[in-house]
């Protein structure tokens, strides 16, 4: 069931429509009421759930964000036996992501017939989306974030999957969880940096711990130099589709990948924002971080100094270059 289609139909109805709600009941197979609604004349989008009042704790604080809010109301036609929850879009600029959010909730509720379990599922899903919207821009990934995600997926496809089983490889991709390095293996970590500038390229290092190999073993820094082209090269949606295709027969790996894409802020509903820009890899380099590598680490800092951000020159890193086969040996535990 496509929620967007229902809302689009309601939004087109403008003639002889008085202020109030246009509403449609969905999920007739469950033991509670689920409605898709629009409030006229502003075309405010809502998801409405109606439960027995005894199942709703009045002390519950429902998740909210800059995109949505939950209201608990009593409908005129209802006795005190029932209460209604309204999930309301609060920012029309975030209409697309709200539609994805509601579709996710409705798909989950379709599998939950009992009221108490449905309330729990509703709150759990909303908390997940609340966290997502706190971390990510509701309007999609920035250009830098798009390039960074492309680089991490390229490494996953190019090096990780040929050397590790899919689920294990995906669980080593820790960048979406905001760890110090993008990939963490047994005895080795890999940080992926993408650039799209011309010569004299530099790599931005986000903290004094990002290239600190204390307790890690070996850190490898991967630099991908990208040529960003309109209508040429491989797009972000294309590499996502490529990775999905590789693991299409592994249900556990598929779930892992979708959770990671969600964590990083990639949604299929926003594909149109990314499909015109393609990437061509001009150059890729692997650098092994050693003691004399150009870096700042915690042990270099005086007391009271932290949150250090700095850049390093790609040309200065090239004397630390290693080949891709060496990287494969490191992540596979063969070296």
Fold topology:
Blueprint: H1 3-12, E1 20-26, E2 33-40, E3 44-52, E4 68-73, E5 82-89, H2 95-109, H3 115-135, H4 143-160, H5 166-171, E6 183-185, E7 188-195, E8 202-205, E9 218-230, E10 234-235, H6 236-246, H7 251-264, E11 277-289, E12 310-313, H8 314-317, E13 321-322, H9 324-331
Question: Could you list some keywords that capture this structure?
Answer:
about 325 residues, alpha+beta, six-stranded mixed β-sheet, five-stranded antiparallel β-sheet
Q: Would you identify the regions where 5 or more consecutive residues have pLDDT less than 50?
A: none
Radius of gyration: 24 Å
Shape: elongated
Briefly note the structural class of the backbone. Answer: alpha+beta
Mean pLDDT: 93
Number of helices: 9
DSSP helix fraction:
25-40%
Please outline the major beta sheet.
6 strands, mixed
> How many β strands by DSSP?
13
**Termini gap:** 51 Å
Q: How much of the polypeptide forms β-strand, as a percent range?
A: 25-35%
Order of helices and strands: HEEEEEHHHHEEEEEHHEEHEH
Number of domains: 2
């Amino acid at each position: 069931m496509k929620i967007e289609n229902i809302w689009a139909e309601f939004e087109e109805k403008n003639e002889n429509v008085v202020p109030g709600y246009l509403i449609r009941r969905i999920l007739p197979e469950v033991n509670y009421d689920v409605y898709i609604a629009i409030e006229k004349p502003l075309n405010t989008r809502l998801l409405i759930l109606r439960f027995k009042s005894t199942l709703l704790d009045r002390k519950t604080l429902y998740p909210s964000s800059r995109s949505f809010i939950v209201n608990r109301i009593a409908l005129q036609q209802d006795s005190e036996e029932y209460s209604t929850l309204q999930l309301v879009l609060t920012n029309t600029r975030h209409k697309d992501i709200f539609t994805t959010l509601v579709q996710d909730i409705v798909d989950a509720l379709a599998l939950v017939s009992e009221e108490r379990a449905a309330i729990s599922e509703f709150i759990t899903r909303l908390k997940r989306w609340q966290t997502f919207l706190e971390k990510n821009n509701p309007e999609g990934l920035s250009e830098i974030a798009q390039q960074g995600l492309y680089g991490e997926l390229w490494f996953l496809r190019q090096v990780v999957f040929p050397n590790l089983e899919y689920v294990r490889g995906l669980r080593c991709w820790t960048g979406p969880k905001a760890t110090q390095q993008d990939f963490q293996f047994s005895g080795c970590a890999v940080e992926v940096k993408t650039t799209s500038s011309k010569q004299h390229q530099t790599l931005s290092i986000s903290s004094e711990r990002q290239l600190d190999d204390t307790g890690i073993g070996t850190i490898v820094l991967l630099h991908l130099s990208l040529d960003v082209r309109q209508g040429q090269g491989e797009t972000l949606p294309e590499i996502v589709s490529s990775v999905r295709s590789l693991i299409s027969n592994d249900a556990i790996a598929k779930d892992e990948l979708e959770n990671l894409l969600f964590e990083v802020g990639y949604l299929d509903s926003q594909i149109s924002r990314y499909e015109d820009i393609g990437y061509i890899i001009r150059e890729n380099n692997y650098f092994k971080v050693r003691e004399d590598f150009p870096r700042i680490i915690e042990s270099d800092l005086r007391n009271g100094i932290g949150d250090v951000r700095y850049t390093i020159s790609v040309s200065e890193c090239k004397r630390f270059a290693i080949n891709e086969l060496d990287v494969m040996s490191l992540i596979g535990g063969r070296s």
